[in-house]
Amino acid sequence: MTSLVGLCRAHSSLDRSDIDHLHRLTAEWAFLADLCFSDLLLHVQSDDGRWMIVDQVRPATNQTMYPIDFVGIWASQADALMNEAASTGEIVEGDITLNVPVTGTEETVARAVAIPVRREGKLIAVLTKEWVLRAGRSLGELERGYALIFDQFTHMIGTGTFPFSGRAADSSAAPRVGDGVMMLDNEAAVTYVSPNANSALHRVGIQANPVGMRLAELGFHDGPARQAFERREPVVEEFEQGADVTLLARCVPLMRGVGDDAEVVGGLLLVRDVTELRKRDRLLLSKDATIREIHHRVKNNLQTISSLLRLQSRRLESDEAKAAVAESVRRIRTIALVHESLSREPGDDIAFIEIVRPLLRLAEEGLQSPDRPVRFSVSGSGGRIPANAASPLSVVMTELLQNAVDHGFPEGSGGGDVAVVLDHQGDELALGVIDNGQGVERGFDLATQNGLGLSIVRTLVTTELNGTIDMRPATAADLDAVGLGDGTTHGRGTVVELSVTTAD
């Protein structure tokens, strides 16, 4: 097991609260790696004094030293530094000899800092920052600024005030260091601003030098900073800055002291411009709403057509004509039902069961009669299907249900049962319609049938749905499998098996 929790339980005596503390640390530490431009490794000590690497994070602001994953490996490179840090309780820095050369070089000597990790005064782990010194290169202004910020967090890790014990804000979608960094004092005045953060300020119309000025004085929304300072935990907030700029900000308070006596001495404010992202989100929402409105209007139009056809049917005298109009109305209502379902569903696909259930209710209303009661049931879900497959599939299902009732249970037959079985595997949807009616003759061939309903089914399945269909007499096993076998139906009943591709 290579999870942090599993490794801690297997190789240390840490309790649940200690492990939770380390879990919160690793949930937050991506920005720490970015601030120090270095790889960070988290170690816990076993009962025999060895150090187990339980987690690792690489910087997004610099090339990693370690392309391989060290999680679950016993540490050996920085043992001496970690032992000293654990025994003294102090941050220890020194050289380490690498087991493998640094990526892209032959360098086997690196620099490391061992940082004690405490919770409630107890040492529970050691965090190491590991990097390679570049000969002849001095730190730039940005790196020096980030290093000072990182040092403050190492102090907080050593005193147990970071990570925060309260409910910390979700950092998964929060701004990163590369998006823009501002350092604040305890009055929310800017003490440092990174170039990317400065650019973000310029985009919202703030041209003045922000250093030394409070956020409110700059005209910049200070809500995240005020809340973070008051609540003593990170705060993420999205807000409109100016007329047409949307910013996402995350403020992490900087603490000095131990436990409840710790005071807020400043904050780290990460800022990201998400204007274009939100514009795209709004466009997608607008598109989705438009599509659903179209489905709703199509449904209303189809219902109007159905009403007109029913009015026309009342004026007909021919029973054959009335039956033909009734079948047309049923098909139109089926398509309208699909559009109604699509108008309620976001996205480009729909759960097939949400169409099947109302189709069965429609069949119960229109196909059975007092002297021909037919019970319908469904099993399985059918998964989700693309919107463009929903209408032909629904028409096919309606025709199969009507065929099962009309041919399996003639008027005066006493009725029976129709079971619908759905199964969705990958991109394949299997649909079965099984009844315990009169059945079909042996040797029945669907391809030779000329009825309108079966012709519609055959055409839709083979051309629009790229599928296959088979109709055959039911066996006792078929009926038993769907709960329709009662010992008296041998040689009766029909099975329709349909398989279609649901991939777009």
Question: Can you put this structure into words, describing what you see?
Answer:
The chain is of the alpha+beta class and 504 residues long. It has four domains: 4-139 and 147-159, 2-Layer Sandwich (Beta-Lactamase); 177-273, PAS domain (Beta-Lactamase); 275-347; 349-504, 2-Layer Sandwich (Heat Shock Protein 90), CATH 3.30.565.10. 40% of the residues lie in helices and 24% in strands. The protein contains 14 helices and 17 strands. The strands form four sheets. A five-stranded antiparallel beta sheet has the order 2-1-5-4-3, sandwiched between helices. Strands 7-6-10-9-8 form a five-stranded antiparallel beta sheet, with helices on both faces. A five-stranded mixed beta sheet has the order 12-14-15-17-16, covered by helices on one side. A hairpin with a 2-residue loop joins strand 14 and strand 15. The longest helix has 40 residues, at 275-314. The chain is elongated. The mean pLDDT is 82.
Strand order of the largest sheet: 2-1-5-4-3
Question: Low-confidence spans: pLDDT under 50, at least 5 residues?
Answer: none
Number of strands: 17
CATH architecture grouping of the largest domain? 2-Layer Sandwich
Task: Give the structural class.
Answer: alpha+beta
Which topology of the largest domain does CATH recognise?
Heat Shock Protein 90
What's the CATH C level of the largest domain? Answer: Alpha Beta
Shape: elongated
The CATH homologous superfamily of the largest domain is named: Histidine kinase-like ATPase, C-terminal domain
**What count of structural domains?**
4
What portion of the residues fall into strands of 2 or more residues?
15-25%
Distance between the termini: 39 Å
How confident is the prediction overall: mean pLDDT?
82
Helical content (DSSP H or I, runs of 4+): 25-40%
The biggest sheet, with number of strands, parallel, antiparallel or mixed sense and barrel status, is: 5 strands, antiparallel
* Number of DSSP helical runs: 14
Radius of gyration from the CA trace?
Answer: 35 Å
